[in-house]
Amino acid sequence: MTRESRAGYCATSPELELWLARHIEQGFDAESLVLSMLRSGYDATFARDTVNAALGHRPPVRQVPAPAPVVTRQAAESIATSAASPIAVSPVSSSTPSAGRNAFRHEGREVPILFALEAPRILLLQNLLDGTECDALITLAHDRLQRSPVVNPDTGDENLIDARTSMGAMFQVGEHALIQRIEARIAAITGLPVEHGEGLQILNYKPGGEYQPHFDFFNPQRPGEARQLRVGGQRVATLVIYLNSPPAGGATAFPKLGLEVAPVKGNAVFFRYKQPDGTLDDRTLHAGLPVESGEKWIATKWLREQPYRSRG
């Protein structure tokens, strides 16, 4: 048995070097790059050394165990050389803030981390969008607003329920230049490629509007929710962006954690529910609390474990 078949693929290529350069430029951190290479079948030592060399003067990558699944050399080459199917970069690592990172940077924009919770993984990001971008998304959504449905867990159909009282507008991935720019920023910060995101959803809550406690991930034991897994796999994380600052109410609450995130224009809360061992963290139960004064506008991005395609 060769070293490659025992431990993983150990050869570099111009395509891999280009892939690393492109993702480093987009702001992906060292650990995300190493984990992506491991999941694509690369040898752990080779992945760490290659990423460290590509990062140059940047801090070394912490030791990461190789994953159990072994990908063939042919599959690894295919992933590395396909521009249409880049290696899937993992979500923001649970160790990122402890490694000294206090902000993300993308195309000249700095996005400070206001707080980070380790388990479950929750980040509050400041000024993910500027005021002009927030206002522009609201303007784009106005003509599309309709009552927001939820997925029926038994049938998979989208139904209206009293627990969710918002109006919403859905956009296709990359549908508008502004949305393309925002989606690229989200990919750089979360570590998941644009293709893993569902379309951006803009939501509007009037006074009294709320979304009662719920999970964003799907329950594969319920036939209706299992249908959703066929178009991108499980949801792994959510990003909620606040497009305005309501005078009162409208916080995002995590009742099992005793945590409430106030809606502040331009800020965003990111939370991840799929854990490294594949289990789903029910501590990410969350709610949109009732709006007490004014109205609330948010943009929601759900992120999948695989490239997402609409059911059509």
TrEMBL record:
UniProt entry tagged with the keyword Oxidoreductase: yes
Keywords assigned by UniProt, alphabetized: Dioxygenase, Iron, Metal-binding, Oxidoreductase, Vitamin C
Pfam families: 2OG-FeII_Oxy_3
UniProt entry tagged with the keyword Iron: yes
Gene3D superfamilies in alphabetical order: q2cbj1_9rhob like domain (2.60.120.620)
GO MF annotations in UniProt: iron ion binding; L-ascorbic acid binding; procollagen-proline 4-dioxygenase activity
Cofactor(s) required, per the database record: L-ascorbate
InterPro entries xref list: Oxoglu/Fe-dep_dioxygenase_dom (IPR005123), P4HA-like (IPR045054), Pro_4_hyd_alph (IPR006620), Pro_4_hyd_alph_FE2OG_OXY (IPR044862)
Source superkingdom: Bacteria
Record-annotated Fe2OG dioxygenase domain positions: 196-305
UniProt protein name: 2-oxoglutarate-dependent dioxygenase
